[in-house]
Amino acid sequence: MQILADYHTHTIYSHGKGTIEENVKVAMSKGIKKIGISDHGYRHMTYGVKLKDIQKMREEIDKLNQKYPNIDILLGMECNILDKNGNIDINENIIHFFDYVMAGYHFGSAPTSLKSMMNHFNNYIIKNEKAKEYNTQGIINAMRNNDIFIITHPGDKGDVYIEEIAKVAKETNTRLEINSSHGYLNVEQLKKIKHLGNTFIIGSDAHIPNNVGNFDKAMKTIKEAKLDLLFVENIRV
Ligand SMILES: [Zn+2]
Ligand SMILES: [Zn+2]
Questions:
Q1: Gap from CA of 31 to ligand 1 centroid (Å)
Q2: Helix boundaries (H) for the chain
Protein backbone atom coordinates (compact mmCIF):
# COMPACT_ATOMS: atom_id res chain seq x y z
CA MET A 1 0.00 0.00 0.00
CA GLN A 2 1.23 3.45 -0.83
CA ILE A 3 0.18 6.45 1.23
CA LEU A 4 -0.48 9.34 -1.12
CA ALA A 5 -1.17 11.86 1.63
CA ASP A 6 -1.58 12.23 5.37
CA TYR A 7 -3.60 15.39 5.93
CA HIS A 8 -4.02 15.02 9.69
CA THR A 9 -0.89 15.65 11.77
CA HIS A 10 -0.27 17.83 14.83
CA THR A 11 2.82 19.71 15.96
CA ILE A 12 4.07 21.79 18.87
CA TYR A 13 1.89 24.65 17.56
CA SER A 14 -1.05 22.87 19.25
CA HIS A 15 -0.39 19.81 21.44
CA GLY A 16 1.76 17.64 19.21
CA LYS A 17 5.25 16.71 20.36
CA GLY A 18 7.21 17.38 17.17
CA THR A 19 8.05 20.33 14.95
CA ILE A 20 6.67 20.74 11.44
CA GLU A 21 10.03 19.68 10.00
CA GLU A 22 10.13 16.53 12.16
CA ASN A 23 6.69 15.49 10.85
CA VAL A 24 7.86 16.16 7.29
CA LYS A 25 11.01 14.06 7.74
CA VAL A 26 9.05 11.06 9.02
CA ALA A 27 6.61 11.41 6.11
CA MET A 28 9.52 11.39 3.64
CA SER A 29 11.09 8.36 5.32
CA LYS A 30 7.80 6.50 4.76
CA GLY A 31 7.58 7.51 1.10
CA ILE A 32 4.54 9.75 1.60
CA LYS A 33 4.11 12.28 -1.19
CA LYS A 34 2.01 14.88 0.60
CA ILE A 35 1.76 15.88 4.26
CA GLY A 36 -0.70 18.24 5.89
CA ILE A 37 0.06 20.08 9.10
CA SER A 38 -3.32 20.49 10.75
CA ASP A 39 -3.17 21.80 14.28
CA HIS A 40 -6.25 22.53 16.38
CA GLY A 41 -8.45 25.53 15.68
CA TYR A 42 -7.87 28.61 17.83
CA ARG A 43 -11.09 28.29 19.83
CA HIS A 44 -9.91 25.09 21.45
CA MET A 45 -9.39 26.28 25.01
CA THR A 46 -6.28 24.24 25.78
CA TYR A 47 -4.74 23.11 22.48
CA GLY A 48 -5.80 25.75 19.98
CA VAL A 49 -3.24 27.33 17.65
CA LYS A 50 -2.36 30.87 18.67
CA LEU A 51 -3.59 33.32 16.06
CA LYS A 52 -0.21 35.06 16.05
CA ASP A 53 1.52 31.79 15.05
CA ILE A 54 -0.48 31.15 11.88
CA GLN A 55 1.54 33.40 9.61
CA LYS A 56 4.74 31.95 11.11
CA MET A 57 3.54 28.42 10.33
CA ARG A 58 2.76 29.45 6.74
CA GLU A 59 6.26 30.93 6.31
CA GLU A 60 7.90 27.88 7.87
CA ILE A 61 6.00 25.58 5.49
CA ASP A 62 6.86 27.72 2.44
CA LYS A 63 10.56 27.44 3.37
CA LEU A 64 10.34 23.69 3.97
CA ASN A 65 8.70 23.20 0.56
CA GLN A 66 11.79 24.78 -0.98
CA LYS A 67 14.15 22.72 1.17
CA TYR A 68 12.39 19.40 0.43
CA PRO A 69 11.19 19.46 -3.20
CA ASN A 70 10.24 15.76 -3.16
CA ILE A 71 7.33 16.20 -0.83
CA ASP A 72 4.34 18.51 -0.90
CA ILE A 73 3.80 20.19 2.48
CA LEU A 74 0.43 21.80 3.13
CA LEU A 75 -0.94 23.97 5.89
CA GLY A 76 -4.37 22.98 7.14
CA MET A 77 -6.26 23.45 10.36
CA GLU A 78 -8.45 21.07 12.34
CA CYS A 79 -11.20 23.53 13.16
CA ASN A 80 -13.70 22.97 15.94
CA ILE A 81 -17.37 22.49 15.13
CA LEU A 82 -18.62 24.95 17.69
CA ASP A 83 -22.40 24.63 17.72
CA LYS A 84 -25.58 23.41 16.07
CA ASN A 85 -25.42 26.21 13.48
CA GLY A 86 -22.19 24.71 12.21
CA ASN A 87 -19.96 27.62 13.13
CA ILE A 88 -16.27 26.71 12.99
CA ASP A 89 -13.23 28.64 14.15
CA ILE A 90 -11.98 30.08 10.90
CA ASN A 91 -12.39 33.66 9.79
CA GLU A 92 -11.62 35.92 6.87
CA ASN A 93 -8.48 37.33 8.49
CA ILE A 94 -6.71 33.97 8.50
CA ILE A 95 -8.35 31.73 5.91
CA HIS A 96 -5.95 32.81 3.13
CA PHE A 97 -3.00 31.28 5.01
CA PHE A 98 -4.44 27.77 4.70
CA ASP A 99 -4.38 25.22 1.90
CA TYR A 100 -7.38 23.35 3.32
CA VAL A 101 -9.74 23.24 6.27
CA MET A 102 -10.85 20.22 8.26
CA ALA A 103 -13.39 20.29 11.07
CA GLY A 104 -14.34 18.03 13.94
CA TYR A 105 -16.06 18.08 17.29
CA HIS A 106 -13.91 18.44 20.42
CA PHE A 107 -14.89 18.82 24.08
CA GLY A 108 -12.43 21.63 24.65
CA SER A 109 -13.89 24.14 22.20
CA ALA A 110 -15.01 27.43 23.70
CA PRO A 111 -18.83 27.55 23.79
CA THR A 112 -20.59 30.07 21.57
CA SER A 113 -23.80 29.99 23.64
CA LEU A 114 -25.35 28.43 26.71
CA LYS A 115 -26.82 25.72 24.45
CA SER A 116 -23.45 24.78 22.98
CA MET A 117 -22.02 24.64 26.50
CA MET A 118 -24.88 22.36 27.59
CA ASN A 119 -24.20 20.16 24.57
CA HIS A 120 -20.61 19.56 25.74
CA PHE A 121 -22.08 18.50 29.07
CA ASN A 122 -24.69 16.25 27.41
CA ASN A 123 -22.02 14.58 25.29
CA TYR A 124 -19.67 14.13 28.23
CA ILE A 125 -22.09 12.92 30.89
CA ILE A 126 -25.59 12.12 29.66
CA LYS A 127 -24.99 11.02 26.05
CA ASN A 128 -28.68 11.41 25.14
CA GLU A 129 -30.65 11.61 21.89
CA LYS A 130 -30.81 15.39 22.18
CA ALA A 131 -27.03 15.55 22.03
CA LYS A 132 -26.93 13.11 19.10
CA GLU A 133 -29.34 15.33 17.15
CA TYR A 134 -27.41 18.50 18.10
CA ASN A 135 -24.07 16.98 17.04
CA THR A 136 -25.51 15.77 13.74
CA GLN A 137 -27.01 19.17 12.88
CA GLY A 138 -23.74 20.89 13.83
CA ILE A 139 -21.72 18.79 11.39
CA ILE A 140 -24.33 19.07 8.61
CA ASN A 141 -24.52 22.86 8.93
CA ALA A 142 -20.73 23.12 9.11
CA MET A 143 -20.46 21.28 5.78
CA ARG A 144 -23.20 23.37 4.18
CA ASN A 145 -21.88 26.75 5.38
CA ASN A 146 -18.12 26.33 4.98
CA ASP A 147 -15.69 24.94 2.47
CA ILE A 148 -14.54 21.92 4.47
CA PHE A 149 -12.23 19.36 2.92
CA ILE A 150 -12.53 16.66 5.60
CA ILE A 151 -14.78 16.03 8.62
CA THR A 152 -12.44 14.51 11.21
CA HIS A 153 -13.40 11.52 13.39
CA PRO A 154 -17.21 11.79 12.92
CA GLY A 155 -18.96 10.50 16.04
CA ASP A 156 -15.96 10.70 18.35
CA LYS A 157 -16.76 12.44 21.70
CA GLY A 158 -20.37 12.89 20.60
CA ASP A 159 -22.62 10.39 18.85
CA VAL A 160 -24.13 11.27 15.45
CA TYR A 161 -26.66 9.98 12.91
CA ILE A 162 -24.00 8.92 10.46
CA GLU A 163 -26.28 8.23 7.48
CA GLU A 164 -27.56 11.83 7.53
CA ILE A 165 -24.01 13.16 7.70
CA ALA A 166 -22.86 10.89 4.87
CA LYS A 167 -25.65 12.12 2.59
CA VAL A 168 -24.75 15.80 3.09
CA ALA A 169 -21.03 15.00 2.82
CA LYS A 170 -21.71 13.57 -0.61
CA GLU A 171 -23.81 16.56 -1.67
CA THR A 172 -21.16 19.04 -0.51
CA ASN A 173 -18.15 17.03 -1.72
CA THR A 174 -16.78 16.70 1.82
CA ARG A 175 -14.56 13.76 2.72
CA LEU A 176 -15.22 11.71 5.85
CA GLU A 177 -12.23 10.65 7.88
CA ILE A 178 -11.38 7.19 9.08
CA ASN A 179 -9.18 8.35 11.93
CA SER A 180 -6.34 6.00 12.78
CA SER A 181 -5.97 7.24 16.37
CA HIS A 182 -9.53 7.72 17.64
CA GLY A 183 -11.28 4.82 15.95
CA TYR A 184 -13.98 6.90 14.22
CA LEU A 185 -15.43 6.29 11.70
CA ASN A 186 -15.77 2.82 13.22
CA VAL A 187 -16.78 -0.51 11.70
CA GLU A 188 -20.45 -0.14 12.58
CA GLN A 189 -20.68 3.36 11.06
CA LEU A 190 -18.87 2.30 7.89
CA LYS A 191 -21.19 -0.65 7.39
CA LYS A 192 -24.14 1.75 7.54
CA ILE A 193 -22.81 4.17 4.92
CA LYS A 194 -20.38 2.28 2.70
CA HIS A 195 -22.96 1.91 -0.09
CA LEU A 196 -23.70 5.66 -0.30
CA GLY A 197 -20.75 6.52 -2.52
CA ASN A 198 -18.85 8.82 -0.16
CA THR A 199 -15.17 9.60 -0.46
CA PHE A 200 -13.12 8.67 2.60
CA ILE A 201 -9.74 9.83 3.85
CA ILE A 202 -7.53 8.05 6.35
CA GLY A 203 -5.86 10.39 8.83
CA SER A 204 -3.11 9.35 11.22
CA ASP A 205 -3.95 12.20 13.64
CA ALA A 206 -0.30 11.86 14.66
CA HIS A 207 0.63 13.76 17.80
CA ILE A 208 4.21 12.47 17.69
CA PRO A 209 6.29 12.52 14.49
CA ASN A 210 6.74 8.72 14.40
CA ASN A 211 3.00 8.25 14.03
CA VAL A 212 2.80 10.26 10.80
CA GLY A 213 1.44 7.83 8.20
CA ASN A 214 0.48 5.24 10.80
CA PHE A 215 -2.73 3.99 9.21
CA ASP A 216 -2.79 0.56 10.90
CA LYS A 217 -5.90 1.03 13.01
CA ALA A 218 -7.88 2.59 10.15
CA MET A 219 -6.89 -0.23 7.77
CA LYS A 220 -8.13 -2.77 10.30
CA THR A 221 -11.47 -0.92 10.52
CA ILE A 222 -11.77 -0.78 6.72
CA LYS A 223 -11.07 -4.49 6.43
CA GLU A 224 -13.62 -5.42 9.08
CA ALA A 225 -16.27 -3.18 7.52
CA LYS A 226 -15.45 -4.55 4.05
CA LEU A 227 -15.23 -1.04 2.60
CA ASP A 228 -13.98 -1.01 -0.99
CA LEU A 229 -10.55 0.66 -0.96
CA LEU A 230 -11.44 2.52 -4.15
CA PHE A 231 -13.48 4.89 -1.98
CA VAL A 232 -10.41 5.79 0.10
CA GLU A 233 -8.80 8.69 -1.68
CA ASN A 234 -5.38 9.00 -0.07
CA ILE A 235 -4.00 5.48 -0.46
CA ARG A 236 -3.12 3.35 -3.45
CA VAL A 237 -3.04 -0.43 -3.20
ZN1 LIG B 1 -9.60 15.96 16.51
ZN1 LIG C 1 -6.42 15.89 15.34
A1: 25
A2: 20-29, 54-67, 114-121, 129-145, 162-171, 187-193, 216-225
